[in-house]
Amino acid sequence: MSGQDVRVKSSPDGEFGAYLASPAAGRGPGVVVIQEIFGVNKVMRQIADDFAARGYFALAPDLFWRLEPGVQLTDRSDAEWKRAFDLMGRFNQDAGIKDIQSSINYLRHSIAGCTGKVGAVGYCLGGLLAYLTAARTDCDASVGYYGVNIQDKLGEAAKIRKPLMLHIAGKDEFVPPDAQKKIIDGLKNNPLATLHSYPEMNHAFARQGGDHYDKACADLANGRTATFFRQHLS
Q1: CATH code of the domain made up of 2-233
Q2: Residue 119 in contact with residue 232, Cβ under 8 Å?
Q3: Catalytic: 167?
């Protein structure tokens, strides 16, 4: 397994950076790792490395590149949180989804060992983008962890064509109970959507080193994700 920084073309806007972790076997499916509001930082790179260790080509694209390339913040200081929220507020979601499609294309067509099956997994902001990825791209399977503002995009649920899994934190400080109910009610009858709720968990319960990290629930969610990808990307 090895990781490297690569460049991905995003026509017609130019190209952006991404972190690519490759499996030791040199062959496997692809996974787009969709960032939180902190950029492609150590946490996202570790997630990509972990997927590579399980046999995937894992690509974490720099979705903030139009605003500020190379953002790598932590969740350790108020100043970094403020900067992260500022970037999220200025971020163009529609352009971000196009970059995710470009990332899917990169894995399928520029990586010799990729089988052609490509999934996506996102966290926080990336959880919302994973949902939109299921609705707007040709991704083979998508997983979102504690996505924020999905309830405002439920009109796109009818466009989902491939399997989607969402992990919902029951006590998410950024997704209040009424928003969670809207998400669950809006997707519960969609045969392509699988929703898992973690009643006692707060936002980012799967972020190692984070204030709300819970190993038991993180392991449960990550195990469900691993099984989901094995079913749909093999």
Answers
A1: 3.40.50.1820
A2: yes
A3: no
